[in-house]
Amino acid sequence: MKILIRNLPRTFTEIGLKELFEAHGEVQSCTLVLDKKTSESKGFGFVEIAKVGDAKVAIQALNGKPINGNKIRVKKAEPAKNA
User: Fold this and answer.
1) Helix or strand (DSSP H, E) at 79
2) Cα dist from 27 to 20, 31, 39, whole Å
3) Residue 67, by phi and psi: left (phi above 0), alpha (psi -120 to 50) or beta?
4) Residue (of 8, 61, 1) closest to 27 by Cα position
5) What spatial distance separates the first Cα and last Cα of the chain, rounded to whole Å?
6) pLDDT at 83 over 70
């Protein structure tokens, strides 16, 4: 299941994001979205967890969790809509 994580501190790293979610299940992929010009974090990213049950537990456990003063928002990622 692909998970969207928003409101991450701009200083947060992909490694930190992966470690945060590994406590709840096997992380298949982890992507922190970066600004193309500055290569700095845009404050959100995606994590994919192999088992749906583990992903649901991670969402429940981490949604609203404070990280460096930011309360992160965690939810199931919706498929991209083609315009």
Assistant:
1) none
2) 10, 11, 23
3) beta
4) 1
5) 23
6) no
Query: What is the mean predicted confidence (pLDDT) over 58-75?
Result: 96
Mean of pLDDT values over 56-61: 97
Give CA–CA dist 40/17, Å, rounded.
15
Mean pLDDT score across all residues of the chain = 94
- pLDDT band of residue 81 (cuts 50, 70, 90) is confident
Q: In what order do the strands lie in the sheet with 27-34?
A: 27-34, 41-49, 2-6, 73-76
Buried b (16+ CB within 10 A) or exposed e, 19-53: ebbeebbebeebebeeeeeeeebebbbebbbeeee
Smallest Cα–Cα separation from 30: which of 40, 43, 15, 42?
Answer: 15
